[in-house]
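Justification of resources, computational component.

The compute hours requested in this renewal are based largely on the per-chain cost of generating structure records like the one below. Each record pairs the submitted sequence with a full structure-token output. That output is archived, and it is also reused by downstream analysis tasks.
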Amino acid sequence: MCAIHQPNFFPWLGYFDKIRRADTFVFLDKANYPKSGSSMGSWCNRVRINVGGKAAWISCPVVREHGVQPINTVRIDNKRPWRDTIRRTMETNYRKAPDFALAFPLIDGLLAFESDSLAEFNTNAIVTLANHRGFTTRFVAESELPSMEGTSTARLVEIVKAVGADTYLCGGGASGYQDDAAFPAAGLKIVYQNFSVTPYGNPARFIPGLSIIDWLMHRSDQWEAGLV
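The structure output for this chain reads:
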């Protein structure tokens, strides 16, 4: 089974569930970096955590270039003290969380990873957390594979075949743009992830869809025990 996703910035728990279920996980690092009107960017360089009881963004600033940029060419703006900003935000908002003492050193170490490549930084964090979790998933970057000629669904089909998989594990948000019929037409199976988060921590403060950082602050004990 193969799962494919852009290398996101400290992604949510569902991202790691997809890694857990896949035999091979492909980082879609040659996809175009999403452009937006906001200087903040996309899920590739920002994510939400619990700040004062509300979902709020933390981000890794990037150097803006004109035109289309593949994700693996996007550079981090390390002239800005974004790592220290995130550390202070975590300390302020999670220091009373039950597993802060376990989770903060782990995240702090990932923040300290020195790179000016957004894809490299994100990939390191994701793979480290997955290994810490005990996953045996094989990780592959799209940029390591032969050049893909297809676009959209056809590109996904090519990637699944290129890594030797026979099944594509699809996230729940793809039904609006993906041609599911293309997979069986190419001799491949398709399985939808259908993941939902079980509320954790204080029910009154639980916010779905936050970064893995939020989950670790409350459930590091279960992470260590090998539980999702």
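The longest helix spans residues 118-133. The CA atoms of residues 29 and 144 lie 10 Å apart.
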